[in-house]
Write a sequence for this structure.
């Protein structure tokens, strides 16, 4: 038993001085300016042309997927969609700094990370059309992707729950001796949940190799950041937990990439969490159920459009001679037709047979669910017209 | 009298509550300027100021914790949880705090002025995180009241009843009726007392019992049965806790049969309590077992939503089985 | 074979589990060096190292959130919640995450390896924050298993069964038996499969059903009834979810009468599900209504604990009423 | 609609510099040293002799109550007790800085605040013996005091729940235009709960006049502070929330008093929360159910005994000439006999009649509870010997 002294080396003062807010003023790492030019004293990350283009492609693909699917929702082809627009750099820039073995636990606006990992248009579409080819078996709303092979944890809607889970997952990776960590994405709104507090504190105390990446995009649905917290963003909290922390310009793919490379190095070598706060802006509506004109001005949106991460990255790539405008046009055209093609195909695929309705609740179907399934199937046989999507198979 | 949908009725009830009692305070995620993701709190901030209608940070446990304190202080909080599916982070504050506050202090303090509003239920292609019907969890919490309206008229009256009731109330709003259900709603202030069921159709052969959005489902089954010459008594339970067992028992002693319909999974759904109590109280009157037509014991599915639902066809079939028992 | 109390049996089960599977990890508040406030995890840190048995910060939602992630990763977490009364901050992680993890991912990921251990129940002068029996809440959560042992032998076998079961299990330990219940417990490794009730006394006149610490209460009532010449069948349900309805129904079809005893408040307690199901399945066999002897619909009291408890005298009286129905 | 800019005036950096733990090193306000001497450059708070003695008396009373009741628990006279020993300055020093109209929401180790407010020995005893004179009506375990007249919120065992409640209570006070605030006490262990996060953040965003006082006493039952958090205590978190914060020597009644006076002034004038972290040590066992020898050394305890807040305060009072040793002895003697007397009386008082068992669940007793009460009373009549405490009244 050590003699513990939780006062440690606390310094004394004899002055009643209350620490005011604003003690912290955490700067933001920026490598590219809003025009996509390197800041004079900034250092470019080590990034091959190949990887830079992969990032660029993932960002463009994500933007196009979003555009296409928002339209598909308006056409009534899918019930719901949620776009990453404006935040592609925060997501793709960080995903690009990971190893494929790293587990990604996302909130819901990180489809760019999946794109970067190689999720195909068909896979996106099967999930969004809840058809029988969806690995989630059509059980979740559109955009709740999950892919075990790609180490991308299935998304769940309740906010913040993945944060302590990420600490646990990372703890398990460490215990298993893996050279891999977990990255956990969430919004500045989700960071108000109790689970955020639990997750960051546990990760710090239990030395979990996890990167917490907060997309501070200024809004949680209609609630602006200033009604979400009163401190210096989310970064200032990391310090309170004793968690290494960095704030980056989330619209600058190079800054996000550099910060994440460094965070990963530290997290793995020290077996400790790192918090990244990526300052960005949700250019999109919250989701297709939302209309932002009720809570923010076009003017504000316009200002942020000027900071578009894709335009910025493109300028940098063009300047480097790694990209040409023709390449961009070709790529765009190809992706557009690929997405549309995949959409049309997925739309035609049937949903899972009714047998599936009680599967995966447990590892095997217990007696009471067997009973319930049998009764349901018999009922559907009796009323085939009332259950057109599943009656056919049972006739 | 104007025709209102359920959201408008709720909005009107909130305006009435805030106008008649300046201690009423409305808050939750996005309820402020924006008026809530369903717009149930539209214009309240405009009308009553930011101090009395405001956004909270995104923390359900915080919202209810804050509301408990505010209620204990003597204000009249009406807290919104954006979806019933997201009420669980607040479960501890509700089970261990809201519901036990008065009891543990010997009546010195209480959260009696608190009302928690939340949309619940399926039928909106929401999958398992936007469709749950959590009433059974809350029916096992002594100290709490639980209320579910079936239409705009009921919604306004019951919400005013809930806000003015001297006990904490969980007010569950059937979200698939938010815009779908429309009826005449008096402009004036009226409150429907809690704890009373309503017989909405008299009948002699069987009692059909439901609450919220499922009332219309059993009503439809009753209509189908009527074509077979079956006379159904239809009851809207309205209050889940405390519930009106006497009203249900009276009906069952008359009809000899009880069918309960709810959306939540059957196992330990609130139907089980009703069945358990009624089979005991009406044992000698029952001509068939009390029967439940409910959701499956699975998370609420997306692709198979239609199949999952305890719809009128399932209800009608169960009803026939009961009559031929 | 050594005589062990319930805590020792649990400690032995944990040692066996950790020895036979190096992926088993045990954690919770004070479970590390100290061995837990009840000492169920004594010496585990010493034996298996701090990486596999450790204290967590004081956050139940964090403990279960962390455990969910750890389980999804492939480890085998055994998380302790210090008192069942403090499991509610973790309710969201359990309802929305643990239980739906497999389903929502189409079986790609799951929390199947997770076991949550927590002491529950009254009779220890603990008042309403150290006495609750929360099983009914968890019985309404598809995807979860819920288990309650009645004695040290059962505790060891069922806990090993729970840890090795491919589904998340909530393991409720009757804390008033922790030191009070002593019996022979084999040294060797054995697991009792989940989902099976046990008929612990054969009888013909009435079926008495309980779980956990209440099994001994109904047993005592059965002994009292025996003096009147009444033959009771006594069943320990053991698993609350999924539960062994067939075993209970078989018994009731034989005896014609069912009495259920549990400590939790009667309204929407797990007894209601049993009653609802059994009256349906055994309708034509029942000679009296299914009856529940349970806790009152109040928070668990302190000064009136004795009066609150569904003890053997209340059980015996209800049993007589049933026989004379 | 304003154009919001959640980046505010964030400074830029072009260097990947991760902020390490230890950026913060929050000093601790200390006015009296361990011997009870004023630090040379420290300023004594404005404290009248009368109030200083009231504080001293409350601290001594608390110590003696604790000693007596721990003994009573050992004798089997009460089932449970939980002592404040070693932390009297943190509790009484802060309570003394409040107005009687301020609401106190405590965790469970703050009986000193009740003593300071005037709770009597009889009141303490009635609660601990769960008798019919207890205002909580014998419904809670010993030490779960509550007193509406004294603005002391009834204690509840679940940790942390009072933290967001305090924000709500304070919001209500502000709304009602009261010149009063709420103080909320909790341990450094409880500060790990999600409710802590919710409470502090909401108080900051919603401008609630509340003082959060964390007793960082080094342990949560057996768990030492270093297994509870990895940051610079609890104070460093306050900054993350944008909450004014101060760390004080919790064993120094003058420092705690000064800090709380200042905190109260700020909280009320600005309508904002203030966080105080009082660094102290739980000299007692966690509770009478606990044996600390399993997790800490006698040596460690001894070190802290030297920092005893009562001895320190006494020295200061003696030096000031406000106290004499005879006064202390007399006071001690008087309190001892008063406590013992009250204990003996409370012990004899019966518990509440059985009718009460269903009261206060709701504002009035609903039908099902009336039914349950009737059945229970009938049953007790049938078995009077089995329920000796309540059978008499019904015969
Ligand atoms: C526990 C929980 N509460 C509420 C919601 C409803 N909801 C969905 S998204 C959202 C806002 C989230 O904002 P933020 O975390 O900032 O992420 P962003 O949408 O900005 O990417 C809310 C309130 C939810 N999904 N889960
Ligand atoms: C929600 C909850 N979880 C666990 C407990 C059990 N418990 C009671 S006291 C305690 C330790 C509290 O430590 P701290 O907050 O530091 O206060 P201290 O005892 O040191 O004053 C624990 C774990 C509880 N009462 N409530
Ligand atoms: Mg956001
Ligand atoms: Mg402590």
């Amino acid at each position: 038993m050590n003699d513990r002294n939780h006062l440690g080396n606390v310094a004394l003062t004899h002055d009643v001085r209350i620490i005011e807010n604003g003690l912290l003023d955490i700067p933001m790492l920026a490598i590219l300016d809003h025009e996509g030019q390197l800041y004079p004293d900034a250092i470019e990350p080590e990034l091959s042309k190949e990887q830079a283009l992969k990032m660029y492609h993932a960002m463009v693909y994500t933007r196009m997927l979003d555009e296409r699917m928002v339209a598909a929702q308006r056409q009534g082809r899918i019930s719901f969609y949620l776009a990453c627009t404006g935040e592609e750099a925060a997501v793709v820039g960080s995903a690009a700094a990971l190893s494929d073995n790293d587990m990604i636990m996302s909130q819901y606006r990180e489809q760019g990370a999946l794109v970067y990992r190689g999720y195909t248009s068909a896979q996106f579409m099967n999930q969004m059309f809840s058809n029988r080819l969806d690995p989630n078996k059509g059980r979740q709303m559109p955009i709740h992707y999950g892919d075990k092979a790609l180490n991308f944890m299935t998304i769940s809607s309740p906010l913040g729950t993945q944060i302590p889970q990420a600490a646990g997952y990372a703890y398990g990776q460490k215990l298993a001796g893996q050279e891999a960590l977990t990255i956990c994405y969430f919004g500045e709104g989700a960071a108000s949940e109790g689970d955020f507090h639990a997750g960051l504190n546990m990760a710090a105390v239990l030395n979990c190799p996890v990167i917490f990446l907060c997309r501070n995009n200024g809004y949680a649905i209609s609630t602006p950041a200033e009604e979400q917290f009163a401190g210096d963003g989310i970064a200032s909290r990391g310090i309170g937990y004793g968690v290494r922390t960095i704030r980056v310009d989330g619209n600058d793919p190079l800054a996000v990439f550099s910060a994440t490379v460094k965070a990963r190095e530290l997290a793995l070598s020290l077996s400790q969490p790192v918090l990244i706060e990526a300052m960005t802006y949700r250019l999109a509506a919250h989701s297709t159920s939302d209309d932002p004109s009720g809570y923010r001005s076009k003017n504000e949106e316009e200002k942020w459009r000027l900071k578009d991460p894709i335009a910025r990255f493109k300028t940098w790539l063009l300047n480097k001679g790694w990209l040409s405008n023709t390449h961009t046009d070709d790529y765009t055209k190809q992706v557009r037709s690929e997405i549309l093609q995949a959409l049309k195909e997925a739309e035609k695929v049937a949903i899972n047979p009714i047998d599936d309705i009680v599967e995966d609740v447990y590892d095997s179907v217990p007696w009471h669910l067997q009973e319930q399934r049998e009764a349901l199937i018999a009922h559907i046989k009796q009323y085939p017209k009332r259950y057109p999507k599943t009656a056919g198979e049972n006739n | 009298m104007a025709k209102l949908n359920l959201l408008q009725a709720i909005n009107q009830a909130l305006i009435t509550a805030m106008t008649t009692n300046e201690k009423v305070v409305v808050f939750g995620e996005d309820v402020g300027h924006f008026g809530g993701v369903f717009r149930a709190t539209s214009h309240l901030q405009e009308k009553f100021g930011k101090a009395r209608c405001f956004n909270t940070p995104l923390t359900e446990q915080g919202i209810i914790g804050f509301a408990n304190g505010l209620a204990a202080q003597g204000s009249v909080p009406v807290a919104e949880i954006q979806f019933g599916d997201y009420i669980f982070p607040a479960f501890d504050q509700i089970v261990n705090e809201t519901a036990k506050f008065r009891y543990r202090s010997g009546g010195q303090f209480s959260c009696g002025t608190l009302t928690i509003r939340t949309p619940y239920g399926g039928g909106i292609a929401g999958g398992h995180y936007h469709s749950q019907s959590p009433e059974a969890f809350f029916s096992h919490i002594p100290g709490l009241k639980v209320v579910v309206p079936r239409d705009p008229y009921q919604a306004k009256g019951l919400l005013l009843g809930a806000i003015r009731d001297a006990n904490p109330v969980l007010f569950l709003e059937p979200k698939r009726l938010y815009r779908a259900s429309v009826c005449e709603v008096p402009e004036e202030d009226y409150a429907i007392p809690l704890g009373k069921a309503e017989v909405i159709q008299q009948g002699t052969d069987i009692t059909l019992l439901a609450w919220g959005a499922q009332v219309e489902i059993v009503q439809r089954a009753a209509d189908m049965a009527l074509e077979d010459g079956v006379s159904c008594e239809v009851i809207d339970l309205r209050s889940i806790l405390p519930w009106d067992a006497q009203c249900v028992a009276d009906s069952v002693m008359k009809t000899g049969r009880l069918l309960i319909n709810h959306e939540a999974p059957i196992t330990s759904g609130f139907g089980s309590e009703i069945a358990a109590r009624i089979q005991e109280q009406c044992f000698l009157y029952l001509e068939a077992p009390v029967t439940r037509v409910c959701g499956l014991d699975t998370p609420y599915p997306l692709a198979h939503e239609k199949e999952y639902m305890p719809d009128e066809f399932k209800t009608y079939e169960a009803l026939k089985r009961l009559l031929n028992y």
